[in-house]
Amino acid sequence: MIQRLKQLMWFALLAASNSAVLLAADTQLPGTNQIQGVVRFTNTDPDILARLGPPGDEGMRSLAVIAYTDPPELLQSTKLVQPTDPLSQPYDLTVAADHTPRIFNLYAYLVLDSDHEEYWTAPVTSGPITSNPPPALVNLEECVALLELRYQRANGTPVAAAGGRALVYEISPTPGLRACYLTQPAGREANYVVVPSNVELSIDVEADTGSDIYL
């Protein structure tokens, strides 16, 4: 079920991107412009930085920046990036533009921790964009928290989980899925999850121990 959810999310992303390209072509918009910026973790805590960056290297492995307009236009553009730094990565994204100023919403989808974990940044809005330079500047910066999940029996004895999954939802101020991992390497007695800081969250956790699944 969870693997199917991941497939559906990627399918929706690709379908929306393809639809946006067709819409831009059908309406024959006269020009484009660029949105540029950086996707970055803004943490200063050395322990968190050491886990996300070297030597932990559990930060950004790959990412997609998605820009979209509100209805009724429903234009969308997506840029896939392979980061060279697990903590910070510049990007540039081409969007449809004409002489009428247009506002885009942007967020980044990040794959973390050797492709085991996924994270969505909070959406931000661009300034008014037209087909004339200069490019718009939009930085997607997040100060994240690390949530440690410890697998233990009722008496406190650690349990090496054969696998596990977690879904992290923001409750407020902006409800929605913000982080997840759908597979976990076997043998872990604990797992760290990158989650947004300073927001209210709910988390669904599943741990597999042999033939038992705990939710």
Describe the structure.
The protein has 215 residues and is mainly beta. It is built from two helices and 15 strands. A hairpin with a 7-residue loop joins strand 2 (60-68) and strand 3 (76-81). The longest helix is centred in the first third of the chain and has 25 residues, at 2-26. It is elongated. The relative contact order is 0.17.
Q: Sum up the overall morphology in one term.
A: elongated
Strand residue content: over 45%
Q: Estimate the helix proportion, in percent.
A: 10-25%
**Number of β-strand runs:** 15
Radius of gyration: 19 Å
Span of the ends, CA to CA: 14 Å
Offer a quick outline of the entry:
15% of the residues lie in helices and 46% in strands. The chain has 215 residues and is mainly beta. The longest helix has 25 residues.
Quickly list its features.
215 residues, 4-stranded mixed β-sheet, 2 helices, 15 strands, disordered N terminus
